[in-house]
Amino acid sequence: MDFTLRFQLSLMMFLEYFIKGAWFVTLGTYLATNLKATGLETANIFSTQSLGAVIAPFFIGLIADRYINAEKLLGVLHLFGAFLLYMMYSSTSAASFYPYVLVYFIAYMSSLAISNAISFRHLPDAKKQFPTIRVWGTIGWITSGVAISYIFHWDQQEAIAMGALGNTFLLGTLFSLLLGIFSFTLPATPPIKHITASKNITTLLGLDALRLLRRRDFFIFIITAILICIPLSFYYQNANPFLTAIGLPNPTAKMALGQFSEALCLLLVPLFFRKLGYKKMIIIGITAWVIRYLLFAYGDADSLAFMLILGIILHGVCYDFLFVVGQIYTDTIAGEQYKSSAQGLVTVAMYGVGMLIGFWIAGYIGEYLKAKDVTNYWWQLWMYPATIAAAVLVVFIVLFKGKTAGNESSSLPG
Fold first, then answer.
1. How many other C-beta atoms are found inside a 10 Å radius of the C-beta of residue 377?
2. With contact defined as beta carbons under 8 Å apart, do 247 and 373 qualify?
3. Distance between CA atoms of 122 and 195, rounded to whole angstroms?
4. Which among 289, 309, 300 has a CA at the least distance from the CA of 379?
5. How far apart are CA 103 and CA 110, in angstroms?
6. Terminal CA-to-CA distance of the chain, rounded, Å?
7. Of 196, 239, 247, 309, which is the most buried if we count CB atoms within 10 A?
8. What does the alpha-carbon distance between residue 253 and residue 172 come to, in Å, rounded to a whole number?
9. What is the pLDDT of residues 129-171, one digit of tens each?
10. Could you tell me which residues come within 8 angstroms of residue 219 by beta carbon, excluding any fewer than 6 positions away?
11. Band of the pLDDT at 407, cuts 50, 70, 90?
């Protein structure tokens, strides 16, 4: 791979993830302080990410893959995204904010798939080289968090009170414009007609792989993936408001430690996988969710701040040991006929069904606790996802038998 191609793809990934990191991490705090959103309004807005994840495959598979070069579409999506981010910045209520963020996430979730597709099409050895490109996305996300906390100081208590978090959308707007323009300089990536012609709605949504649910372990894994996304939604929706409310300095930059941890754990997954296998790694991943929320429940911004930092750093284990290993497990057992459909099914189950349910549950519980005017609001809030994750852990340990890929493949229903 020549230097120019590596630079282009790396910068594309950096900007792609910088954009979301610039505003999404602090979104919960912004909604509560700037727009005075209720818990259910916040849940409604966060759920647009799940809706985008479900709708994006239609756009990519039925339209984008067939009729337009990927790099040109990426540019159009991010130029349009810049407009939507600016309209989010200009919104004065949760109601007026909602339609812009919904359309934005349909566009953004589509752009994620397109940026990956561009990379895979142009890398000579994608299996080995893609991680070195994708890691720049993680660096972009971390950089945005550091900029917000240490350069602009928008997440300081005084700045938040003055409405400074609105500037995060302007930062996202600027970088979305940059990526929109830069995308037109990327290598030409035309549609592959002989591949895309065979795509249909059932394949894109993973419905072809529904027959795999007859297999006990895969069914249990899918149910586990959906249920564990409920605690995950609590993190996305409440972590930044929590850290801000209790007075942890530079919360946005500290939350970026989770992405650093995720990148490190991703490199370690092959090593642990050889030693532990699917079931033990997924058990470790679910256990990490329980520990994370207990750390949040009992930590504070003073002498126990290390518990909060450790809870953030556990993000790598929480995410990679469950979701990444789960994707590997799915790829292994699905067989050539169902690989794409099975991954589509897992994506819709987790980011569509699971997180959609999770955001609403998190919003309802937050509203319920505020209505009760409890004195230990944050402790009670974090104990809910800790309990849910613990219940999911027990279900998975008891019901998932952990058959080998070979045994499972031989048991495919005819």
1. 15
2. no
3. 16
4. 300
5. 11
6. 43
7. 239
8. 16
9. 887 888 899 899 999 999 999 999 999 999 999 999 999 999 9
10. 213
11. very low
